[in-house]
Amino acid sequence: MTSPTPACALCGLPTRFRTILGCYPLCRCEACDLEFIHPIPPQELLARVYAHGYFQGTGERGYCDYFGVERERAARKGAAWLDRIQSHGGRGGRLLDLGCAAGYFLEAALARGFDPYGVEPSGDARGKVSSALAGRVFPDVSAVRDKAPFDVITAWDVLEHLADPLAAVRALAPLLRPGGLFAAVVPVQTNLNARLWPASWDQYKPPEHLWFFSPRSLSRLLCEALGAREVASWDEWSRPGRLLLERPAPALLHRLDRALFAPLRLLRPRWLVDSSGVLVRRA
Ligand SMILES: [Zn+2]
């Protein structure tokens, strides 16, 4: 790559070119484990990614059937996220979910006594929000400013999609009350797939995903942007039963892959984790 790599958005130190994902150069900051596509593609291209069909399997990218088969899984995940928030004192109050899609998490929050609001730029997804959430989901953050301060703000599988996640979280900081909780889940590139064989990690998928965190860099971003401290972190999901193979391969390679996977699961679970969450509390 001939163009210079930019300074790290988090720590300001020089970054290095790591690899090309498709036609997108990936840069990495060794000091804080942060990786990102550079340059960030233009807004018109990003808008096309989330155009009609992103949630229904008919777009260029996105979910197979978010409003159908994914709904139950989304509800299950939402219940687990609420358990975490509530175990750290988030018991009711006003909640904002950034990138709330069809509002499944907001429905679960409403059922548990929160006063929930959501921001979702996709008109497709907003059109699927249930009537129980009428008047609670808006296309952008500016529309929910008058609902602040929020006791809890969440961003589930969202920050990796944004052109500038640091700026997005900084913009939310004034909306979170002192002592309020902010929770986020992102894919994490600390697993063996991402570290050893980037082409085998299915979460390296620009221009849908643009930023690639470790648990440490996610925590640092949230703490610095919000003036917060970490109160919890967790592993969200790991690929089951295989190590490096993502695509079809000869049976012998699959057997070898499974054989390598088993001892690694006992030795270093971190090597197998694909997604992690962090919960921080604003000072
Ligand atoms: Zn850095």
Assign the CATH superfamily of one domain.
Vaccinia Virus protein VP39
Q: What is the overall silhouette?
A: globular
Task: Determine the mean pLDDT.
Answer: 90
User: What's the CATH first level of one domain?
Assistant: Alpha Beta
Helix-and-strand structural type: alpha/beta
Radius of gyration: 19 Å
Overview of this structure, please?
With 283 residues, the chain is α/β, with parallel strands linked by helices. It has a domain at 70-189 and 213-282: Vaccinia Virus protein VP39 (Rossmann fold), CATH 3.40.50.150. The chain contains 8 helices and 11 strands. A 7-stranded mixed beta sheet has the order 6-5-4-7-8-11-10. Strand 4 (93-98), helix 3 (104-111) and strand 5 form a beta-alpha-beta unit. Helix 2 packs across helix 3 (104-111) and helix 5 packs across helix 7. It is globular and about 55 Å long. The model has no long low-confidence stretch (mean pLDDT 90). The structure holds zinc ion. The site of zinc ion has 8 residues, from loops.
